[in-house]
Amino acid sequence: METKKITYRRIRPEDNEQIAAIIRRTLEEFGANKPGTVYYDPTTDHLFELFQMEGSCYFIAEDENGMIGGAGIYPTTGLPESTVELVKMYILTPYRGKGIGKRLMEMCLIEARKMGYSSVYLETMPELTEALPMYEKIGFQYLEKPMGESGHHGCPLWMIRELD
Prior knowledge:
The protein is an alpha+beta fold. 24% of the residues lie in helices and 26% in strands.
């Protein structure tokens, strides 16, 4: 599939249903639609409202055919004050491997710096095989145990990246 012009913007109220569907479809694709993940998290259906929290933001990627993915940062309960969590980063299958996820992540890291955070934390699963090398390449390091209280006990991999 030829990549068309991709645009990036902040989430809007009318995006809730479509981004929730992208998130769940992606988890199903990787066999990661299990309890303790965002698949069953009720906030997944209300991302616009969730990302009105101070210290958070969510970006949507789209082309002329519509929404293709998104990613955000969120000040998860229990994280150190200087740390924010990279959350709900999902891209539709035909658009992976084209730099869109990387661009969304970079936008989140830039926004985190602007907001005064010094590190970004994430939780993920071994099933999300395409994301893990990207996280590593961008400088995320594995942790031995989780940080914060995301409630996503189905995510057994934890990573952190210090911001420059």
